[in-house]
Amino acid sequence: MAEHLPREAGTVVVGGGTSGNVIAARLAVAGVDTLVLEAGPDFGPFGSAAWPADLLDATRLGRSHDWGYDSGDTLPTRVAFERARAIGGCSDFNGTTQTWGHRRDYDAWAAAGNPGWSADELRPLFDEATRIMRVKRYRAEELTPWQRAWYDAGTSIGLPRLETLNDLDQTTGFAPEDNNIVDGVRWNTAFAYLDPVRHLEHLRIAGRAHVDRVLVRNGRATGVVVLRDGESHVVRADRVVVCGGAYNSPQVLQRSGIGEPTLLKELGIEVVADLPGVGENLHDQPFLLMSWAGSEAMSAAMSRLRAGGWAPDEQAMAKAASSFDPDVFDMHFLPYSPTHRGEEKRWSCGVGALLPRSRGHVRIRSLDPEDKPLIDHRFLSDPEGHDAQVLAEGVEQLRAIAASPGMRDVVGCELRPGPDAADRGALLRHIRANPDNYWHPVGTCGMGPASDPDAVVGQDGQVHGIAGLSVADCSIMPTIPRATTAMPAVVIGERVARFLLATR
Ligand SMILES: Cc1cc2nc3c(=O)[nH]c(=O)nc-3n(C[C@H](O)[C@H](O)[C@H](O)COP(=O)(O)OP(=O)(O)OC[C@H]3O[C@@H](n4cnc5c(N)ncnc54)[C@H](O)[C@@H]3O)c2cc1C
């Protein structure tokens, strides 16, 4: 741990989050002098008393140390866009579901001019990341009664029961999730990747170090400006790897003069690279949480389980197909039964539309790094109405499962969207009035060849036109895979680290 902020380093990693810790660990093991600058605290290794209980507790999502982002008035209702501000990043917050997606997702990245990212090339990295993140597979017998009821009843609409969702050639089905939980603890990337290398002298980790911007001279990154304890410092570096996540990496680039020139000039920022794709192409999988009244039998069964201890809110998931993607799958169904989110959400199942067509943006509003940016997801804004239609089909499929023999008595009557949104038209109105996110923002520093005017980084993570500057996190995904994004974020770290080491 670095109590004092070093003044120089070989490589600076901006953000000790999900991808950033993978990059830092891989570079450090290879002997590279590496400094991680994390805006939130570094709580130290696993076992340190400084780790907040909510970031460790794998039965619920983490809450403390949030960046505090939300939709502002860009959506009909104010939606929180939670992001962890602490070592581990969103791997401290997430539901620990580890999914991979489908081969078509990654083959499309490679086909768009990104060699090295095809499904077959990434497959060994998924295996390696799964091992290091200590991912284990739940068995059907371990599901809670609520999860088990959905898993069993999924067959009523033709969703086969699977052992795992993580087969890149697989299509639809319901399965217990693969999770990175060790003895009840959410096994974040700080534990998985940093702990084994924390003893290395040439790895330094500085918490409470908020990177304002990257310094660029003659087309080359030369270091960063960091805010710590209210003071601004310069850290010189041979190379900078920005791993701030899909909301924050574009902000760091924009403050550094890398982005859309009009936006930068309006804020008085000198343009060092004209890359209009910075902050654009923001997308997440729109999500709708359905809920039911529940039943006495289900309440009693869940209470018995909770009295015995272990009852995670989520640990089963389905991959389902809408009419837009009948050959593969384009929806997740997620049974969810939190006790801490009010009665309305007590008995829930969510639907996520995995291949959204709507695109939004992230834009800084000032030079102050603590000023919240404009995060405008433009959920459900695609002109064909594809995204809303997929959610509507998902709701209809979940309604069919809920109405199947045996399930009807388990779930009780539907509360949300409820009887007022029975037909397709009313359902679409409900969906449009209640857009929500699935916590998987991506795309804001998209990867692609230099010939693509919207691309921000090349296939190796290198920012186009700036030597010694890379981005490696969910922001570089050109399109979101049919997956939750935690494991793909780790794989991005593994992939870009190999590129960085190859060009050292
Ligand atoms: C509540 C929630 C639940 C989720 N559930 C799941 C799930 O069950 N399964 C799943 O697969 N995915 C889930 N996700 C999504 C997944 O966790 C994220 O997509 C992934 O962790 C993002 O990784 P990242 O490296 O891109 O960013 P992050 O992990 O967010 O890392 C970014 C890091 O950079 C730091 N940082 C940012 N800006 C700066 C700066 N300027 N200076 C210094 N440091 C900076 C941040 O503090 C953070 O530590 C969930 C996300 C959330 C929020």
Short description:
With 504 residues, the protein is an alpha/beta fold. The protein contains 13 helices and 21 strands.
Note down, in words, how this protein is organized.
It contains 13 helices and 21 strands. It is of the alpha/beta class. The protein has two domains: 8-48 and 63-99 and 186-279 and 442-502, FAD/NAD(P)-binding domain (3-Layer(bba) Sandwich); 139-176 and 287-355 and 380-433, Cholesterol Oxidase, domain 2. Helix 4 crosses helix 13 (486-502). The model has no long low-confidence stretch (mean pLDDT 96). It binds flavin-adenine dinucleotide. Flavin-adenine dinucleotide binds next to helix 1, strand 9 and helix 13. The site of flavin-adenine dinucleotide has 41 residues, from helix 1, strand 9 and helix 13. Substrate binds at residue 438. FAD binds at residues 18-19, 211, 439-440.
CATH superfamily label of the largest domain:
FAD/NAD(P)-binding domain
Number of domains: 2
* Weakly predicted, low-confidence segments: none
Q: Largest sheet, if any?
A: 7 strands, mixed
Q: From the helix content, strand content and strand pairing, which structural class follows?
A: alpha/beta
Ligand catalogue? flavin-adenine dinucleotide
Instruction: Specify the CATH class of the largest domain.
Output: Alpha Beta
Number of helices: 13
In the CATH hierarchy, the architecture of the largest domain is: 3-Layer(bba) Sandwich
Q: What is the tally of beta strands? A: 21
The dominant shape is globular
Span between N and C termini? Answer: 25 Å
Percent strand? 15-25%
Helix content: 25-40%
Mean pLDDT: 96
CA-atom Rg in angstroms: 22 Å
Do you know the CATH topology of the largest domain?
A: FAD/NAD(P)-binding domain
